[in-house]
Amino acid sequence: MEVSQQIQHQQLTEESLLEEMMKAGVHYGRAKRYTFPLMRPFLLKTNKNIELFNLKITLQKLNEMADLLKKALAENKTILFVGVTPAAQNKIQEIAETFNQPYLNSKWVAGFLTNFQTIQARLLYFKDLLQKEASGELKEYPPQERNKIERELQKLKNIYNGVLNLEKLPDFLFIVNLAFPQHQTAKREALRMKIPILSLSSSDNDIANVFLFVPANDKAPRSISWLIDYLINKIKTNG
Question: Which pTM was predicted?
Fold first, then answer.
């Protein structure tokens, strides 16, 4: 393929990607009154009330994110994926499980990073209950006590299933939507523990001190789904 043809092919590829992103609503930000000042360079100038992202910049940042994640995974780094909003829960679990990484998608447990020793003790307790469930030992407990333990076990499963094998602090924290209150707590803890933060961030996100972020719609399921699918496919391929 001649150089001119290669350039044309690359342009067409970018154009088709930008079109896909628009169809998925990746370009939509929040209302202008919510805009975080540091996000302005990534937005288009428009008279509309809703902020719109410059998708060329979004795609560039998305590729940078994919490269970083791919490199981190190749170096056996641990990435804790976090997304407890209903819009992000399923895709956060999907990308984490695809690359055998830990995730939290039910709730952010306060002190998860800053008080990790206590969290580890909780995880050991969780593993012990799982072992008792698997061996049938729980069935031997009196009904009232068994019911109480089973309720607690279900609660632990909902919260900690994705971090069951996490034995040390993660090397990176990946968050979808830094504006969500529980995610703000996660960000503060990561900064305190000097853990680099990666994020998918809409126009209302406080991106100060974030290691790498993708400016994009982090609220809509369709947008999040497109972004996560793109990252998964990009990490899996050589492109």
Answer: 0.91
Residue linked to tokens 């428009």: 46
List residues bridging with 210 in a β-sheet: none
Tell me if 82 sits within 8 A of 92, measured CB to CB: yes
- 180 touches 201 (CB < 8 A): no
Q: Note whether 84 and 31 are same-domain residues.
A: yes
| Structure confidence by residue, pLDDT tens digits, 209-226 | 999 999 999 999 999 999
| Residue 108, SS3 per DSSP | coil
Cβ burial of 6 (10 Å; 0-12, 13-18, 19+) is: exposed
Same-domain pairing of 27 and 77:
yes
Choice among 7-16, 62-71, 106-115, 200-209 with the minimum mean pLDDT: 7-16
> The domain that contains 211 carries what CATH number?
3.40.50.10490
Count how many domains the chain has: 2
Determine the structural domain holding residue 218 and report its residue range. Answer: 3-110+169-236
C-alpha separations of 218 from 26, 78, 84, 182, 209 in Å: 8, 23, 12, 15, 19
Residue 89: CB atoms within 10 A of its CB come to 18
Residues 10 and 75 in one domain: yes
